[in-house]
Design goal:
The chain has 465 residues and is mainly alpha-helical. It contains 20 helices and six strands. It has helices spanning 16-22, 25-28, 32-48, 54-72, 85-97, 99-103, 110-146, 166-190, 210-216, 226-230, 234-261, 288-311, 326-349, 354-360, 368-377, 383-400, 409-415, 423-426, 429-435, 444-460, and strands spanning 151-156, 159-165, 193-194, 221-222, 268-269, 351-352. Helix 7 runs antiparallel to helix 8 (166-190), helix 7 runs parallel beside helix 13 and helix 12 (288-311) packs antiparallel against helix 13 (326-349). The protein is elongated, with a radius of gyration of 30 Å. The structure holds arginine (ARG).
Length: 465
């Protein structure tokens, strides 16, 4: 039966079932570091303000340090029947240092305490995820640098459309991850305010100084309004949404890697470290890793929807429903950190099958648009007429069983004599790719420009401390 250090009103022991439902220690023990650091800062502030004595502060601080070591060395296991991490640590502190431990909770409630611990956890992991995004961007840049001339069919509707280069394709994902990175950085700044000192919901009559705790814990300032603060979980929703969006990008990249690994494509070969075999079919090599990254997007989306749903009907301020905020965030954070590391390794190790990609460019008349553009630019035809003539040229190529780029000048002139000599060169796939040199386009020189621009941006991003 649980000891009830926090219940003055409830005399009977709570039932085991109540404890099973109510206790968050089995999962919120993850927050032990944040809880201890928060308590150290709070006790420091209480002493600075003369609310507790310096001696008590010193005992509290030393006791909390010891508890941290006990936890990290597995001496204090956080497996007891305490309700949550806050009660477990406060209980252990009082066991160790007596009355001084009982003074720690002055001018504080578990409502601002949990808001603080959880926010610290979210802020730290926001930085960790942002850092891994930078690593992934750098890796994508390396692949892009190596493949700015490697052609593959760019697609729309998963149908061959126009020739692009593989570096350009990787830069599309690098651009997504840059936006993701910025989303995490923005969220960090938006949420970097300290909840501690809000007490239960209305502040406290004790002469606290919230600036001291805010500063000690690395926040920009205390939060504005305590009623909001103890019932605000927007910071948790921010990280969940940001993870979901990032995983959605990762899932799209994974989907392409899965497709490209299939026999029908064979555009990339994942290293054996990132593929697995089948238990029955000895010849198989399966892309389980990108499949899992794609699949894990489902669970992080679930975590986002779960918390949005928990929060939607809550009256101000704290309600116990909010204890449901943590497991989904822990799960999404764990998933994001692991997935980013795996993705980075997989991209760095994959082999790009340049020949297979370039061969695929000979299917689908990728340079057809160039003929239409030529007829507009050089022969002064309205685009719609040029489009129809080009359609006839494509039909001819189909009948002959060749790609449009393989037709001869006389083939072309048979369809329309306004097609001049220069066209044959224009219809070459590489010429077609390099003709798309408008800003942000796929021409190799433009791709290299994008790579240089993103690389320059990347070096300005400071690693977080
Ligand atoms: N374990 C609780 C949670 O995670 C801590 C806050 C409890 N506060 C309270 N007044 N019951 O939300």
């Amino acid at each position: 039966m649980a000891k009830k250090i926090a219940s003055a009103r409830i005399s009977t022991q709570s039932s085991q079932l109540l404890q099973d439902l109510n206790n968050s220690l089995p999962f919120d023990k993850v927050l032990y570091r944040e809880d201890i650091e928060g308590s150290q800062a709070h006790a420091y502030m209480l002493a600075q303000q003369g609310i507790i004595s310096t001696e008590d502060y010193q005992k509290i601080d030393a006791g909390l340090r010891e508890i941290r070591t006990e936890i990290e060395e597995g001496v204090f296991t956080l497996e007891g029947d305490d309700e949550d991490i806050h009660m477990a640590i406060e209980g252990r502190l009082t066991e160790k240092i007596g009355d001084a431990g009982k003074r720690l909770h002055t001018a504080r409630s578990r409502n601002d305490q949990v808001a603080l611990d959880f926010r610290l956890y979210v802020q730290r992991n926001t930085q960790a995820i942002a850092q891994l995004l930078l690593t992934n961007i750098q890796t994508l840049l390396e692949v892009a640098k190596a493949h700015s001339e490697t052609m593959l069919p760019g697609m729309t509707h998963l149908q061959h459309a126009q020739p692009i280069n593989f570096g350009y394709h990787m830069m599309a994902y690098a651009s997504m991850f840059k936006r993701d990175y910025e989303r995490f950085v923005n969220a960090y700044a938006r949420n970097n305010y300290a909840p501690i000192g809000c007490a239960a919901l209305a502040g406290t009559p004790h002469p606290i100084d919230r600036n001291i705790t805010a500063q000690k814990l690395g926040f920009d300032a205390p939060t504005l309004n305590c009623l909001d603060t103890v019932s605000d979980r927007d910071f948790a929703l921010d990280i969940l949404f940001n993870i979901s969006t990032m995983m959605m990008h990762m899932s799209r990249l994974s989907e392409e890697l899965i497709l490209w690994s299939a026999s029908e494509f064979k555009w990339v070969t994942l290293s054996d470290r990132h593929a697995t075999g089948s238990s029955i079919m000895p010849q198989k090599k399966n892309p389980d890793i990108p499949e899992l990254l794609r699949g894990k997007t489902g669970r992080v989306n679930g975590n986002l929807i779960a918390l949005l749903t928990v929060m939607k009907g809550l009256p101000l301020a704290y309600n116990k429903d909010m204890q449901e905020d943590k497991e989904g965030v822990f799960d999404s954070v764990r998933t994001a950190l692991l997935s980013l590391q795996v993705l980075n390794e997989m991209i760095a190790d994959m082999r790009v099958n340049t020949e297979a990609m370039e061969r695929a460019c000979m299917v689908g008349h990728l340079s057809a648009t160039d003929l239409a553009d030529y007829l507009v630019k050089e022969a002064g035809l309205p685009f719609r007429d040029a489009y129809h003539i080009t359609g006839n040229v494509v039909n001819l190529a189909e009948t002959k069983g060749v790609d449009i780029s393989e037709l001869t000048l006389s083939d072309l002139q048979r369809i329309d004599e306004r097609i001049g000599e220069g066209v044959v060169a224009l219809l070459d796939n590489r010429a077609s790719m390099n003709a798309r040199e408008s800003q942000g386009g796929t021409a190799t020189i433009r791709t290299l420009e994008q790579i240089a621009q993103l690389q320059a941006w990347l070096v300005t991003q400071e690693p977080n401390d």
